[in-house]
Amino acid sequence: MENKAHALAAGIFVAALTLFLLLLAAWLTRESGPSDSYFITTRLTVTGLQPQAPVRFRGVDVGKVSHIGFDPARPGNVLLKLSVGNDTPMTRDTFATLSYQGVTGLAFIQLSDHGKPAAVLPPDSEIPLEPGLIAQLEDRGQEIMDRVNEVAGRVNRVLNDENQKRFASALARLDDAAGSAKQLASRLDETASKHLDPALDQATVTLRSITRTSEEVGRTVNDFDQTAKRLNARDGPMDKLAEGTQALAHAADNVNMATLPRLNRVTEEASHALRQFGRTVGNLQDNPQSLIFGGGRVQPGPGEPGFAAPGGAQ
Length: 314
Fold this sequence. Notes:
The protein is an alpha+beta fold. It has 6 helices and 6 strands, in the order αββββββααααα. The chain has helices spanning 2-28, 133-139, 141-158, 161-231, 237-286, 290-293; strands spanning 35-42, 54-57, 60-70, 78-85, 94-100, 107-113. Strands 1-4-3-2-6-5 form a 6-stranded mixed sheet, with no helix packed on it. It is elongated. The mean pLDDT is 77.
């Protein structure tokens, strides 16, 4: 009896577990609401996509893949039927891509659009499947491999034995240069420590001298300012100088108006007298006898033209 009770309990447990699994499968595959059907026909590879795989519109679950098979109307194409909720904004701009969930390798259908205004896509319409990242990598895999091989060849040419020797030589020179720079820095530090302090002391003395000179210049400027104020004071030297200048100008005007005309007349009379005296002197030089015989005609003497001896005419 006890064995039969254990067998009965085991049977009840298996039946309950089976029922639970069936209910769980029915709950997972249940329809969440009214949906519309769409299909995709493509020659792209749909590796990792399985029936009941999620269909998402910009990351939001909107349905599932209801069927995967071959398209009888287009030999070689894969036919996918999608069950999408009727509240999904499906338009003629909508397209599908094949995406993958993490590192599991399981694929799902990702719906999206280009954001352009378009008419509503009716049910049972075809949705284009555009290549995703994996498909693009597969299509360009050979080109990528060619580029990688080209880069590897260039790296091998750069890292050949001769260039490696050059690199080693350059590194050795850099090491020597670093050592020389370190020695130079040490010498500069030593030089600065020996000569910088006296230079700073001398600069301090110079600054003090400049400060004293500035103070003396300031005092001199103040003295000049006071002197200028005294010179410009009322009835001061500048006013007296201005009064003297005005008196001198008045005297100069008087000289110009009265004295100068008189001087001009005296000068003219003296000039006339001098001219007459000059003519007289000239006449005396030409006829000195005029001082004795006067200014009349003088008889020619012996040897002169017109001379006649006295009594010779008789």
